[in-house]
Every structure is written in structure tokens, then in C-alpha cells.
Amino acid sequence: MPTKAAVRKTVIQRLTALSPADKVNQTQQLISALVSHPWWQAATTIGMTMSTSIELDTRPLIAQALAAGKTVTVPRTLPKRQMAFVALGPGVTFEPSTFGVDEPIGGQEITAEDHDLIIVPGLGFADDGNRLGFGAGYYDRYLAHYAGHTISLALAVQRFHQVVWPLTPFDIKIEEIISMQEDHHG
Ligand SMILES: Nc1nc2c(c(=O)[nH]1)N(C=O)[C@@H](CNc1ccc(C(=O)N[C@@H](CCC(=O)O)C(=O)O)cc1)CN2
Ligand SMILES: Nc1ncnc2c1ncn2[C@@H]1O[C@H](COP(=O)(O)OP(=O)(O)OP(=O)(O)O)[C@@H](O)[C@H]1O
After folding, report:
1. Phi/psi of residue 124, each to 5°?
2. What's the Cα-to-Cα distance from 54 to each of 19, 50, 63, 71, 119, rounded to whole Å?
3. pLDDT tens digits for range 40-85
4. Which of 53, 118, 145, 159 could be disulfide-bonded to 179 (CB atoms 3.0-4.6 Å)?
5. Could you report the predicted ipTM of this complex, rounded to two decimals?
């Protein structure tokens, strides 16, 4: 079995090699599946992320949620690999972190229990719900104390039918992964 680091590298290479048009096309399909999901429709407060360029672009998703009147939160990283989610709105500004993510400055922190749904980022997603993140353990720590719904969106190159990386007791499965078929061609 390859190491987590090796699988991360493979997925990053595949994401980098995706054509922008193919990525946009897949992203639109995944977003349309997500916004018709009952957990999305019922959710008042949704945790998302400010995507980096290799990730699925979350901007259209954030825009749709705000247009539907939902509260959207995004993470701010804290010492000891903790995160706080901050509601988007007037008064929130952004500053890029060392990881390359725009992180909110100011704004109101929303607790884990006040979220109905968290859209969890990552590099690889297995059909059984297992997730390979960027390797810092932020979400595994956060989700350990979160009881609401979780969904991840997997582009074709991020989808795995089985877990091919080593699991640890800290790994928390995502409740539902919305995935593209790997035979997708843009
Ligand atoms: N768009 C997006 N935002 C996100 C995540 C994500 O996966 N995607 N995260 C998902 O977790 C959190 C940030 N994840 C991070 C993952 C790795 C490193 C990291 O390796 N940073 C330094 C090392 C710092 C250290 O060792 O303390 C580095 O870049 O070398 C930082 C943040 C929160 N925000
Ligand atoms: N709940 C936790 N408590 C303590 N340590 C943890 C916890 N979750 C993960 N870790 C540790 O954090 C490190 C990174 O974990 P892992 O490689 O699973 O991250 P990841 O899931 O890929 O990243 P992320 O969750 O940030 O997207 C590992 O050393 C792991 O043991």
C-alpha cells in the first residue's frame, strides 16, 4: 500500500494536469448534485472553504448559498491544528495563510453545534467515505467534536473505489461523498 504522502502527491499531480474547462464542467455537475441534496436544502448554516487553485472552486457554491439566504462559514486556522469557523458577511476581510488559503480576519465565530452541514475539503475520497486531506489533521480534529452532516465533493481524479492509503484511528469518514465517474471526459 502506498503511503498517504505518495497518494497526496499523485492526486496533486492529477489535479494540476486537469484542463480548466474539464474542471469547470465537473465542478458544475458536482455543485448541482449538492444543491439538490436534502441536507443542503435543509441547512441554515453551512461550513465551506475558500478554495486554493488546485481544489474544486468553491466560489460559485458560496455565492449560491448566500443567494439562498444561508449562513456560510469558512475556517480560520489556529495554533495546535485547531480551526474556528467564521460567518461571511460585512466586516470580514481576508488574508492569505502560509498554506495559500484566504483566511477570514474578524467576523463572528460560529460553533460546531450551530452548523447543519460542513462541506469537507480534501485530496482523495473513497467510496466508503474515507478521506485523505492535505496532511495537517485539521478536519479530523474538528469533526471529532461535530455531530452535524458532512459532505465532500470529489472530482474524477480524486475518487477512489477503495481506500488505497493507510488509515489511522483518527480518520473520520465523511457521511456522503458526491463523486464524478472516473470515466468522465470533459
Ligand atoms: N481550501 C482549503 N482550506 C482549508 C483546508 C483545505 O484543505 N482547503 N484545510 C484542511 O485541513 C485547513 C488548512 N489546512 C492546512 C494544511 C496544511 C498546512 C501546512 O502544511 N502548513 C505548513 C506547515 C505548518 C506547520 O507544520 O505547522 C506548510 O505549508 O508547510 C496548513 C494548513 C483549513 N482551510
Ligand atoms: N483528532 C486528532 N487528535 C490528535 N491528533 C490528530 C487527530 N486527527 C489527526 N491527528 C494527527 O494529525 C496528523 C495529520 O493527520 P492526517 O494525515 O490524517 O491529516 P489529513 O486528514 O490528511 O488532513 P486534514 O484533516 O487537515 O485535511 C497525524 O499525525 C494525525 O495522527
Report:
1. -125, 145
2. 11, 12, 19, 25, 17
3. 999 999 999 999 999 999 999 999 999 999 999 999 999 999 999 9
4. 159
5. 0.93
Instruction: Tell me which CATH homologous superfamily contains domain 4-179.
Output: NagB/RpiA/CoA transferase-like (3.40.50.10420)
DSSP state letter for 120: -
Phi–psi pair at 180, nearest 5 degrees: -80, 155
Instruction: Say if ligand 1 is within 6 A of residue 51 CB.
Output: yes
Checking if the pLDDT of 183 tops 70, the result is no
Quote the pTM value.
0.95
Q: Is the CB of 138 under 6 A from ligand 1?
A: yes
Q: CB 69: neighbour CB atoms within 10 A? A: 7
Q: Where are the domains of the chain?
A: 4-179
